[in-house]
Amino acid sequence: MNKFAQLDRQFVWHPFTQMRDWLQSEPIVIAEGKGAVLRDVQGREYLDANSSIWTNLHGHQHPKIDTAIRRQLGKIAHSSALGLANEPASVLAGKLVEAANSCAEADESRTPSSASSPRRLQKVFFSDDGSTALEVALKLAYEFTRRQHGKTAGQASSRARQPKFLSLEGAYHGDTVGAVALGHIDLFHRGYSGLLFRTDKVMAPYCYRCPFNRAGPERAEAREYRKCRWECIGKVEQRFSAQKKKRNPYAALVFEPLMQGAAGMIPQPQGWLRQAADMARAHGALLIADEVMTGFGRTGFVAATCDRRTSPGDSGGGHRPPLQPNLFACQHEGVQPDFLCLAKGLTGGYLPMAATLTTQNIFDAFLGKYDEFKTFFHGHSYTANQLGAAAALASLEMLQSPESAHARSALEKTLRQELETLWSSPNVGDVRQVGLMAGVELVKDWQTREPFALPERAGIRVCEAMARRGVLTRPIGNVIVLMPPYCTTRTQVRRMVAALADSVETALRG
């Protein structure tokens, strides 16, 4: 066994991994990466089919990001953000705010905001990863709601109530305690129930397994042939109305826009996001958008929606706007959140860094005299790290270039075409794609949708077989994730999908 594999087995505890299983075989030890290719210490090459757990946007060793980091290293690697500012983080904050506000005016035109709650995102709080980005939003929304309630109730105390939060079934928003409280995956969260505050959940729009979907199985993505009356949206309205009757309306709706990741790559039907957001607004709730996975171009290209006035079911019939890239998933349906949480791809997958964007109104609620203690008492040692900011600026510049947009559009089309070949397998129940994210749900029989039991390890077995074919990814239960770096070639996409098809055949039917 390789010496690094031995050291790993002796000392390293891996995340989300049953270590008893891990210790039974020699792990793959990654030594190098270039573009969409990873190389292990034995010299074997693999395609990085999930962008190193959804982080690596432009590929490994990208010359522009490498150069930006080296240039910053020639100046300074890190200085504290507690009482000090720095150049790259300041520039990055401005660039993120500019990119995030493309739909602000359209969102306000649908559900006009009051003078006390303008929607434009103006402030950026930097942190370390997706969990901390959500933790920041949660704490800010919690305290902001209490202070606002104190004002409207005419009370001297700003601590008038305990704000509640609503998130989706199957939600996963990270592993810090507050983020865990927002999640609703029992397998991940029930062991920590004694540490958590209670949050409510509402039905997620999981078309493939929705009890209200009257359509029988077809060889197409379930969103395309569903037959329902938007009962999932009705459930959201019921939740908000019921909570309002308790005289403690929800402080915020927390959601991953367009696709829920750890829930099983669950895509939302077109129009769900806009309807749910408008409903939350109507009930006075803030919107917390978790774009840790979906941000920075992952959700691809759709017709511009920021100026559309059609209902979700309206096919239009007139002139359709041209396709254009959206850096953030919320922009596909013209939704402007009060909190935009970013991480993973923020630095192009190079360094741990996160950002929580919010409004001037929320920022102002934390302003006061020193002895009023209205400060946001939260922070991280590596907040606004210069190396991370430099990498993020280089990544953002590439994302906004015409060349990158063209390449992403072509890659999205290629991925869609190749995924079509999977429908021939009787063990493929649903193939779900949003932009450059795809989830393939494995079942015992597509005609019955009967799932594999978790102890059968169907997803793990398929991914192990893919690794033997030189393609690396990680399953979510019985869902295989494909999320290639933006530099992936047409040939490499074909290899990824072909390896998945072959692995399903050998691991589940061989």
Sum up the structure in keywords.
2 domains, five-stranded antiparallel β-sheet, seven-stranded mixed β-sheet, globular, 510 residues, alpha/beta, Aspartate Aminotransferase, domain 2, single chain, 17 helices, Aspartate Aminotransferase, domain 1
Show the helix and strand layout.
Elements: H1 3-11, H2 19-22, E1 30-34, E2 37-40, E3 45-48, H3 51-54, H4 63-73, H5 87-100, H6 104-110, E4 121-127, H7 130-152, E5 165-168, H8 177-182, H9 186-189, E6 200-202, H10 222-225, H11 231-245, E7 252-255, E8 259-260, E9 266-267, H12 272-282, E10 286-290, E11 301-303, E12 323-325, E13 339-342, E14 354-359, H13 360-364, H14 386-399, H15 402-419, E15 428-434, E16 437-445, E17 450-451, H16 458-468, E18 471-472, E19 475-476, E20 479-482, H17 490-509
Parallel strand pairs: 3-18, 5-6, 5-7, 7-10, 10-13
Antiparallel strand pairs: 1-2, 2-3, 4-14, 8-9, 11-12, 13-14, 15-16, 16-17, 16-20, 19-20
Helix pairs in contact: 4-14, 5-14, 11-12, 15-17, 16-17
Characterise this structure.
With 510 residues, this protein is of the alpha/beta class. It has two domains: 3-63 and 403-509, Aspartate Aminotransferase, domain 1; 87-111 and 121-311 and 321-400, Aspartate Aminotransferase, domain 2. Helices cover 35% and strands 16% of the residues. It has helices at residues 3-11, 19-22, 51-54, 63-73, 87-100, 104-110, 130-152, 177-182, 186-189, 222-225, 231-245, 272-282, 360-364, 386-399, 402-419, 458-468, 490-509, and strands spanning 30-34, 37-40, 45-48, 121-127, 165-168, 200-202, 252-255, 259-260, 266-267, 286-290, 301-303, 323-325, 339-342, 354-359, 428-434, 437-445, 450-451, 471-472, 475-476, 479-482. Strands 4-14-13-10-7-5-6 form a seven-stranded mixed sheet, with helices on both faces. Strand 19 (475-476) and strand 20 form a beta hairpin.
